[in-house]
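Fold Annotation — chain and its backbone
Encoding — discrete vocabulary of local shapes
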Amino acid sequence: MLPKELRESLKDHIANIDHPRELAVDVMFTLQDHYGYLSDEAVKEAAELLEMTPLEVDEIATFYTFVYREPVGKYVIHVCDSVICWMDGYESIKDCLCTKLAINVGETTADGLFTLLPVCCIGYCDMSPAMLINRKVYGHLNPEKIDSILEKLKAEA
């Protein structure tokens, strides 16, 4: 259940806009940040707040790559597989991440720390190959840099 303060904050934000549906993605991200992913309960809460049906919210949620309808790890790694990153070594970066994390793309590590997902483009072609981890960009990747990033995140966890 959504904490009263968060619910009231969202209601206030929604009340200040002419078309509440315009805030659907913002509301979903807020609920996802609270729950860790956009659970079925969160979809119902978003629908109620936005005066939409749960199906309408779910249709939007499943369209966006960064809205997670299933549980994810503490750190969500989106590895870019666009044409530029692919030409600059996406496959070796993906393989390195899979090996280091002992998971395949689309999976979460057993300790719940990392989820590895592909993303079509993150808009950092000048830094390819690149990835996002919890919305932070890492570019010019190589195995040594990936080791350093993962070790730092593990230490922070």
The chain is about 50% helix and 10% strand. The two ends are 26 Å apart (CA to CA). The CA atoms of residues 29 and 75 lie 15 Å apart. The chain has two domains: 4-63, 75-156.
